[in-house]
Structures
1.
Amino acid sequence: MSTQDRDAPGLMREIISDLQEGVDDPNFKWGSMRAAEKISNLYFLLNGSLPDDEETNSFKRKVSDLLRKGGNPSGLTILIGDCYRYAERGRLDGFHQACLLRSKLQVLQDEFVDLEEVVHEPDRGEIAEIDELLEEVSDDAPPVPEKDIPNWLPDSHWWWRAPKQQDMSHEERMRRILYDENDWMG
């Protein structure tokens, strides 16, 4: 089902359901990851802001509570780890995906829960490391085309426009993005 086919209340119910599944089964780590994806879809649907009403505030409190329980913190840790791995590949094929994941994490941070309080101890501080890494690779990262940057993102999501070589040719950009495929061919 596409985002356009969903209504905000229905998407909010799906998010709660995904997170509840992570609470009910502590070994289920995908609930928070699916919820993060759906929260991004919700933001797209609502043009980047949740209404300030009692229903939405109740939803935000419930999401915040559920993110802290069961397998949900582990799912967030996986999401953060995935973002870090993509950021490490930022000079090649990872920058765009790192930006997508970093924005999902930022929305969770801004609207629902302090991620540093939720993730497991060894992973605290990793978001700051991701930001440093995105800044570091931006000197040579292939830029994300403007049409591919979600229009609902606030300016605080600086990483999308961080690549220094915004005038990189399409051919060079594709050479970097398809590096693994091209590398084996010599």
2.
Amino acid sequence: MRSSSSALGLLPSAAVLALTDKENATHVIELAGGNGSSSSSSSTVPSAGKRRRDEGLRINTERRRRRQEQLSRHGRKAPLQTEREWRRETTERDQSEPDVDTTPRQSFAAGSATVSFQRRLARPRDPLAVPLDILVHRHPHWQGLSLPAIKHALRARGPALAHALHATRASPISALPTILDALISEDLRADMPSHFFAVYSKTSQSRPTQARRTVTIFPAHDAVFQAYCAKLAPMPPAAAIPGPDTPLAADGRSIETTLPVVPLCLPSPRTFGLLQHYLYHNDPDALGASLLPALPATASESADRAQTIRDLAQQIAATHGPAKINEHVLQAHGLWSNIVVLGITDEGLWTALDFFWAVLMSALYLATLARPAEHIILGSSQPEPHPVSAVCGPGPAFSSVPTELSASSSCTESETDGNTSDSTALTTPPTSPLVSKASFDDDLMDTSC
């Protein structure tokens, strides 16, 4: 899978007009019925600048109306807004808008259906820098190294660290404490994980009264995540690596140690394993194998990036319907939400995600044209802001109230991600070092997430 280029521009002459349900924070691809006549011609939607001016005029008109109502209650008349004031407000608003898809959008009619898409996933306008001082304080042997040099060292050790994750087993649990016993192979003690992440989502908007939520436990190395995640709060100190004289566990092959549990609230817990796999392996091909639907054995690539996107999209659309492609769209969107919330700015990851998102959007467009009777729900255009503070916040009060949990590594998670109304079960790669899942009472959670 080629993902070395960075710019998008790539949907086949496709119609891309995002319809936003702001109340539920979802993007909806609507197949709106026409008046019975078919149209094969394309109509260009006004430019981004004109749309902003029209939106500014609408907003200012609404502001004047509300102000007039307020002043009329006090027996005064509101002054008219001058053109200079309107231009100043419009300029200030344009400068404060996030840099989200300013490319022209188009709308095309196919039979009696109108298909709408967004072209690209937004990147943070002012990304935070990774706190290098915290990283070096936790790992003094990196003193004097730059962040790129540290990432290079982590990439070299990534496969070995990932192997240690798969060799880690958590002890059976009936409650989620602040620390958790773990077993790790004796020969991997030098690469043993430093923490367990207890990954969970905020309360679902579609089911705000749900009493229980699912927590998934992942072993992790703090060095890897703190090197990539600018918004991840400092973790509690890790336990010391067991010495060579540490007695073996009952199986005679493992050593027992204790690792801190770090609560981590994310928009898409299901895609955390996919993100973790990339951070350890930096393998865009493996990422694409999880994000894209299965391709025919004859799938080929072109030296030209745009042509590769078109070829892959056509092969996917010919093999899978819109519903199947939409599952992968939701998975890619969930991964993007986690990346934004954690403050990951790795260019390789963003370039790969841009590429696969363009393939999925093109494939979904083509598949929807072939099946114009379907109605598809996409995830929200941007992750909600409150999970950002939850990443750095206290998270679940695991130790405050004794609670009986049903924990099992084979438990099936049925909840949806907090920021989407789709209920399709999405899976993480089989190589994801999942330890266990547990359902627990919602009143034990930090509801600010």
